[in-house]
Structure formats: C-alpha cells, structure tokens
Design goal:
- With 152 residues, the protein is mainly alpha-helical.
- The protein has two domains: 1-58, Arc Repressor Mutant, subunit A; 60-152.
- It is 64% helix and 4% strand.
- The chain has five helices and two strands.
- A hairpin with a 4-residue loop joins strand 1 (62-64) and strand 2 (69-71).
C-alpha cells in the first residue's frame, strides 16, 4: 500500500502543533491536494495527512456508493442514508398509536430537522465538489505555468 509506507528516516509524530495545522491548511488552500506531497513537506505519513484533513473538516474527496454520496468530513456529519434512516424511524414512531403530545411534538421536530439537514448537506456537497474542481484547476494552471516557464 503506497499511501501507508512511512520513510524509515521520518520520525514518528503523533501530535500536531497549531503551526503544522496552519501550514497544512495553507498548502491545501493553495491547491496542494496530493497527500504524498503534503506528507513530504510536513514529515508525516500520507495516511496521517488524510486523517488530519478529515478531522479538520477539510474535504478530501467524494465517495459515491449505490445508495448515498458522502463527503469525507469525519464522523460528525450524517450521510444522506443515515439521515433517511433517522427520518424513517421517526415516521414509524409517529404512526404508532398512544404517543403523548410531547413525544409527537418531539418526533415532528425531528422530522423537520432531518429534512432541513439533508437539504443543507446536499448543498454542502455541491459546494465541496465545486471547491475540489477549483483546486484541481488551480493545480493544472500552476503546472501549465511551470511548463511555460521551462520552455521559455
């Protein structure tokens, strides 16, 4: 596994300093999205870079499955599929007789919240995809600029 190989001369680092986090984020925003390059610059393994970006809430990439599209943002956000499961469970409980007024109000609030959440998540994913495309375009532009300087 190429991404999990750690250079033997690379010291193991477990904790990130604020300066390292800032440098990682700065490089990412400048279009350096290759975890191998980031790993060499920061002296960390590529999988460690990816994990840190996920924990920081930076979009690493989109993963598509048969039923849902999720953004790698860590464990704090529900996927569309998870939101739909919460919605289905709340709707099922709403169908059951004998719910008191407070429980009905709580479930209806949960249904409304999940619907809004899913809509916001969809918009966020579109923005994340646009941002990824912009990073890739910036990277290609930088590559073209380097190539044109070499040829000149």
């Amino acid at each position: 596994m190429k991404g999990n190989i750690v250079n033997a001369s690379m010291p193991k680092k477990y904790f990130w300093t604020r300066e390292e986090e800032a440098k990682l984020l700065e490089m990412w925003k400048k279009g350096v999205t290759d975890t191998e390059v980031l790993a060499k610059q920061l002296g960390r393994p590529p999988f460690g870079i990816k994990r840190k970006l996920e924990r920081m809430g930076v979009v690493v990439g989109l993963q598509k499955s048969k039923t849902t599209t999720t953004v790698a943002l860590g464990k704090n956000l529900l996927t569309h599929e998870e939101a739909l499961k919460v919605l289905a469970a709340a709707l099922e409980l709403l169908r059951q007789p004998g719910q008191d007024r407070f429980e009905l109000q709580r479930l209806r609030t949960l249904v409304d919240t999940v619907q809004v959440y899913d809509s916001i998540l969809e918009k966020f994913e579109r923005w994340a995809e646009i941002e990824n495309r912009l990073f890739e375009m910036e990277k290609k532009i930088q590559d073209l600029q380097r190539t044109s300087k070499v040829q000149a």
